[in-house]
Amino acid sequence: MEKFNVFFEEKEEEYVIRWKELQDRVAEAKDSAEELMKVGREIVDFHGEMVLLENYSALNYTGLLKILKKHDKRTGALIRFPFVQRVMQQPFFTTDVLNKLVKECEAMLDHVFSKNGPSVPSEATEVEERCESTTVTENRDRLFRAPTELAEIKHMESVYVRQTISALRVLKEVRSGSSTVSAFSLPPLQTNVVEEDLKNIPILEQAAK
């Protein structure tokens, strides 16, 4: 358990620091679509790392339970109850801070995606007629860049959605009801509604490079 705790605490501390840095960068890049896109990519990766750490916690807890259950069955000793009580107080099992970071990260991703969503003005022709030539050129360039930016944003969303759905499925499997339910069993994870909402977001496949 000591190794579990050391690894988990180091990663959690690292994530707290990295999240603060990413929040600062988003604030600094609020007026630059290019910078927001760059930070957005990093936030997608960061979210995936934190979800993996959540999986790490759940899988290790479940693994320990199975080992203890097998030990008690073979030896007749009943060490599982007191040992699991200790496990539930360990840092690697206490994921409140990590869960909070994941939720904040998801909210930030929604903000970045919505802020970068390019829109095409419905009265572009009239705007061009009223603007000076330099402004018209800038508007045209922005409109030509829009499809590329939109595709990139959608791809980032796709990566984020795939990671989230995959992690939810793993956690659901780990926390699904077993043949022997006890006070130490992880509660079933209710993901039907969450997965349904995520599936409504179109997932784009990126061609292999």
TrEMBL record:
PROSITE patterns xref list: SPX (PS51382)
Pfam families tied to this protein: SPX (PF03105)
One annotated GO biological process: cellular response to phosphate starvation
Source organism, top-level taxon: Eukaryota
InterPro entries found in the cross-reference section: SPX_dom, SPX_prot
Domain SPX: 1-85
Protein name as annotated: SPX domain-containing protein
Organism: Prunus persica (Peach)
